[in-house]
Amino acid sequence: GICPGSSHSTASAVSSSAAAAPAIVEDEDVHPRLAAYDEHVKRTVVPFTEACAGLGPGMESVGKDIGAVWDGVRNIVELGTKYKKPADVPTALQPHLKPCQDAMAKIRSARIDRKFDWHLKAIMEMLACVSWVVMSPPPSPANFVKDTIGASDFWANKVRKEYKSNEKEGPAHVKFCDTMKAMVLDLSAYLKEHHLSGLGWNPHGKDFSDAKVGESSKPAAATKPKAAPAPTPAGAGAAGIFAELTSKKTADGSSAATGLKKVTRDQQTWRKEYQKPVDDAPKPTAAVPKAAATAKFGAKKPLGPPKCEYQERGCKWNVENQTKETCDGGVCKVEVTDVKQQQVYIYKCENVTIQITGKCKSVILDSCTKCGVVFDNVISACEVVNCKRVQVQATGSCPSFSIDKTDGIVVHLSNEAVSESSFVTSKSSEMNVSWPDADGEIKEAPIPEQFMHKMVNGSVTSQVSDLYH
Fold first, then answer.
1. Per the count of CB atoms within 10 A, which of 223, 259, 365, 367 is most buried?
2. 451 strand-pairing partners
């Protein structure tokens, strides 16, 4: 094996070889992501702008603005090839997105013939795909862009239907619709290949704070086809290499290999005898324990600040986020003063008893867990929604109980409420009602959840399942 040393002859050979190389430096400097984007523009955006121009001067200006939007996106793609990813991508890119925003504003405010209203609506729906530059999965940018086709096609199909029978103008309008859809599909394919998880950045690039607004290269150089490598001459290989080296020898016997140092046996690190023992290998550092996750998937969200206050507007008592820790003795007391107007709304309370004294208009229990509600008299109804394992007790009268999307509830009725209370239930389970009998003993029965339905004389009739008899 040999390793390079310093030699004037070698430098001369390298410089002469570089001078003989084809002049495609500009193409080699273009990042593959940027070159692919320029190909996307040439392949689909240019045909679309030409289709817009074919519809008249008004749509031609709109097509030019769409080209400006895609040019603005190209500037963003080029920034990604030069700079590291900033901490806050949308905020960092905001000043660089102004060319796109200005062009889109011109399209939105375009004043052209009313017959192009559907065309403009299809374009505005399609332009939603441009926001892929500031999004992060899920969904992936490719899928996000493809999803915009549905909204734009809604209006494009109206255009197709309107002009499909017009032999004179129809082909130009259909071409507009087809090239627009092809442009979005091609953009989605480009993103799937080059920006699968969001806008690509350069991890070894410069800090994004150094980026200047408006800095970009011209796309023309990127669209030039690269020169094809010279065909390998016949007889190439080891013999060809030695023949070329021999031809490069000078009069004094120097060649391209002159000055290169020989690698001695002890420098050949691939040999076993010169490899370091395993014990000397650097030991992996202990993993730093990660900070406790602030919120695990499916973890219970903390309750908001507790409230127990009366609102004049709406004549309502709001009892929110109460727990046994926030209430004295685990009991939250509400005193109703206006019989006809005031209602009590209980929201997201846990492991607490709500005691309501006085006669109120209604009681609503929403999204509560392991709560108990005791009230005297209710004029309208007591509603229980989205609750789990709750108990409701009427010490006086309550005409109606409404139970919806609740799992686990026991309704305790007084002697006064037994004869007048009714129950309306839906999407609920484990419902029970208890009441005192004539002897004062407490009885309890389940509220039916299972029913048997039959068709009788063209209508559906329902009966409680035999399980409850």
1. 365
2. 464
Angle between helices 46-53 and 170-194 (to 10 degrees): 160
pTM > 0.70: yes or no: no
* C-alpha span between 273 and 23 (Å, rounded): 48
CA distances from 174 to 109, 126, 151, 293 (A): 24, 16, 17, 54
Q: How many CA atoms lie within 13 A of 220 on its CB side?
A: 1
Distant-in-sequence, close-in-space partners of 464: CB < 8 Å, separation ≥ 6 = 448, 450, 451, 452
Name, in order, each residue with C-beta under 8 angstroms of 263's C-beta and a sequence gap of 6 or more. 1, 2, 3
Dist. CA 89–CA 208, nearest whole Å: 10
Residues near 339 by beta carbon (within 8 Å), at least 6 away in sequence: 358, 359, 360, 361, 379
Neighbouring C-alpha atoms within 13 Å toward the C-beta of 265: 2
pLDDT tens for 63-89 read 999 999 999 999 989 888 888 988 888
Q: State the sign of the Cα–Cα–Cα–Cα dihedral 25, 27, 31, 32.
A: negative
